[in-house]
Amino acid sequence: MVWYDSSSPVESRKGKQQVRVIAGTAKGRPLKAVPGNNTRPTTDKVKEAVFSMIGPYFDGGRVLDLFAGTGGLGIEALSRGMEQAVFIDMERLSIEVIKQNVQAAGLTQQAEIYRNEAGRAIKVLEKRGERFALIFLDPPYRMKEMDAMMVELADRGLLEEGARVVVEHDADHVYPEQFGSYIQLKHARYGDIAVTVYRYEPGAGEPQTEEH
Fold first, then answer.
1. Is the pLDDT of residue 13 over 80?
2. What is the torsion angle, in degrees rounded to the nearest 10, for the CA atoms of residue 30, residue 35, residue 37 and residue 38?
3. Using CA atoms, how far apart are residues 125 and 184, in angstroms rounded to an integer?
4. Which CDD domains match (predicted)?
5. 66-107 confidence digits (pLDDT tens)
6. b/e for 157-176, b at 16 or more Cβ within 10 A?
């Protein structure tokens, strides 16, 4: 299913797109971008469509923003009702921007922010006994192994049953409709990017046995 959204993004005085919190307790708060061209924040248009797919609002729960960049997705989830968020990024500049954006949104007490590589971070979160109801995977588009990472997240016990996983990726790359314990719920394309949403259902990929 493809979602279309004709809303216009906010423009800054310099003519560049400015990302903001769209809804919830921090609605309208502007979010800073990471300096340079290495980080590509999710646009308001795509972000609004994503939360239309998975929410749009939440009643508590923990969210993991694993390739957090500016922190925009995790912040939006907190603003819409998630109780606590863990933000992970390996870039120092991204971590500084996430801290500033979380503070600007008034969500500091609900956020944990760590500088780490995603694979290492997953192992640390497993040792801490973390479990999440929502996970965002928005890596650099050259990374096309998010299905393998999702399997590792499941193997390490980091997802609650029924958890949603949102993958933002290059539109030319197609992830499978079902693999492991994941079932695809939504897939939408927006120009050269795509969003695929999965639900985690333990045992979904196991063969059914007949009773005699």
1. no
2. -100
3. 25
4. AdoMet_MTases
5. 999 999 999 999 999 999 999 999 999 999 999 999 999 999
6. ebbeeebbbbbbbeeeeebe
Residue 210 tokens read as: 């007949």
Residue whose pair of structure tokens reads 């797109």 in the numeric block: 17
d(Cα 9, Cα 162) in Å, to the nearest integer? 32
Return all residues near 13 (Cβ < 8 A) that are at least 6 apart: none
Q: Which residues pair with 184 in a beta bridge?
A: 198
Q: How many angstroms separate the CA atoms of 85 and 65, rounded?
A: 7
3-state secondary structure of 47: helix
List 93's β-bridge partners, or say none. Answer: none
Contact by Cβ (8 Å): 99, 113: yes
Query: What would the DSSP string read from start to end of 166-192?
Result: EEEEETT----SEETTEEEEEEEEETT
H/E stretch holding 122? helix 118-127
Residue pLDDT, tens place only, 24-75: 999 999 999 998 766 778 888 899 999 999 999 999 999 999 999 999 999 9
Q: Are 63 and 85 in contact (CB under 8 A)?
A: yes
Q: Residue 56, preceding bond cis, omega within 30 degrees? A: yes
The phi, psi pair for 194, rounded to 5°, reads -140, 155
CATH superfamily of 10-200: Vaccinia Virus protein VP39 (3.40.50.150)
Helix, strand or coil, per DSSP, at residue 25: coil
Q: Which of 200, 180, 194, 184 is nearest to 135 (CA)?
A: 200
